[in-house]
Amino acid sequence: MRPGARQHVSRAAARRRAFTLIEAIASVVILSIAVPTMTWSLAQAHEQRVNPVLTSRAEWLATEKLEQIIADRHSTTRGYSYLAVGNYPNEPAVTGFPAYSRAVTFTETTADLSTSGTGYMVVRVDVTWNDGTGTSRTMSISTVVTDYTP
Predict the structure, then answer these.
(1) Nearest Cα to Cα of residue 79 among 4, 150, 3
(2) Fewer CB in a 10 Å sphere around the end CB: N or C, the chain?
(3) In angstroms, how far apart are the furthest CA atoms of the chain?
């Protein structure tokens, strides 16, 4: 092979190692499209990861309060007559969970659970919090207790 030919191949290879202006512009355009999309996807993934945790915690807090009310109903010192809103005040910030608020309502009914009366009580616990997007959410959990002594 001639020395000049070899040198020509080396120069072509040397020129080919660098980026051209068109390649640089193309990579900037591709990155400008891909990076915002990836950032949005990460934000959505964070929301989808956080919201179930927040909802699960709200369910746990509602169940905790409902179990406390049921325990008071079956208590030998408190009983059915203790179940009143005054004994379970609203909690604007649940102790240990300041991002959650909790409220309890009692509705006295008859056995059909829709007519006003006595003997049955619908107990509802509402827990409110803000989800990963800042939207206010409320979870309600209910049960029925009765005024009887087994």
Answers:
(1) 150
(2) C
(3) 111
Structural contact between residues 132 and 50, judged by C-beta atoms closer than 8 angstroms: yes
What is the residue range of 122's domain?
Answer: 3-146
pLDDT in tens, 64-95: 999 999 999 999 899 999 999 999 999 999 99
- Count structural domains, the chain: 1
Report the b/e string of 12-47 with b at 16+ CB within 10 A: eeeeeeeeeeeeeeeeeeeeeeeeeeeeeeeeeeee
| pTM, 2 dp | 0.68
- How far apart are the C-alpha atoms of 62 and 124, rounded to whole Å? 9
Pick out the chain residues at pLDDT < 70. Answer: 1-17, 150
Task: State the Cα torsion 77-82-87-90 to the nearest 10°.
Answer: 130
